[in-house]
Amino acid sequence: MTEEILKSKNLPRAAQDLxxxxxxxxxxxxxxxxxxxxxxxxxxQRHLLHRGVFSKADSESRKKKKIPLERIRHKDxxxxxxxxxxxxxxxLSDRPLVLGDDGFIRDISGxxxxxxKTERTEEALQLIxxxxxxxxxxxxxxxxxxxxxxxxxxxxxxxxxxxxxxxPGDAMAVKVPERIMIGFPGMIAxxxxxxxxQSRKVVDLAGHII
Length: 210
Known about the structure:
Elements: H1 2-6, H2 11-23, H3 28-38, H4 43-52, H5 56-65, E1 76-80, H6 81-92, E2 97-99, E3 105-107, H7 119-135, E4 139-145, H8 151-164, E5 169-174, H9 177-181, E6 187-189, H10 193-197, E7 202-203, H11 205-209
Parallel strand pairs: 1-4, 1-6, 4-5, 6-7
Antiparallel strand pairs: 2-3
Helix pairs in contact: 2-3, 6-7
């Protein structure tokens, strides 16, 4: 899949044009369509640009909010569950990732709404818990989107693992996790641009683990 996405020789030029237009204030959705059409990009290639190319102003703003991982120690941490899990699973499964202009690593699979638990999920969770044991946040809250199938069961599993590992925290399946994350006074682990743009302190937990 990675080779299929990247085989277009026009992709770097498309990224350059998109960045140029975004820097001049053109609307993101419209210029993505214009640039994609101009260079004959397929859906996956357009999605890569959507996930990775941003204006200089947006990129710099997000980079200023990105907190070094060592500053998590003894701080409250909320984890955007599916966002972090799917990104780590993508790396474990050799699915394509993109390092965005804003410094955050993202998957480009578009699987969030169709997430299904697999063996990779267990591997990704173990990597997250290994990190938490080293980083020692004061407490950790995992949030999962309840409209996604089996979210309640996944939250219960994470809750049990927190207790088993003697890590302070909780896990919840809620309808709109963004409402809790946006404005959260502690650290937020996500690469979701909408959440980053409305938050103060963000960590690229998945990117760090990868």
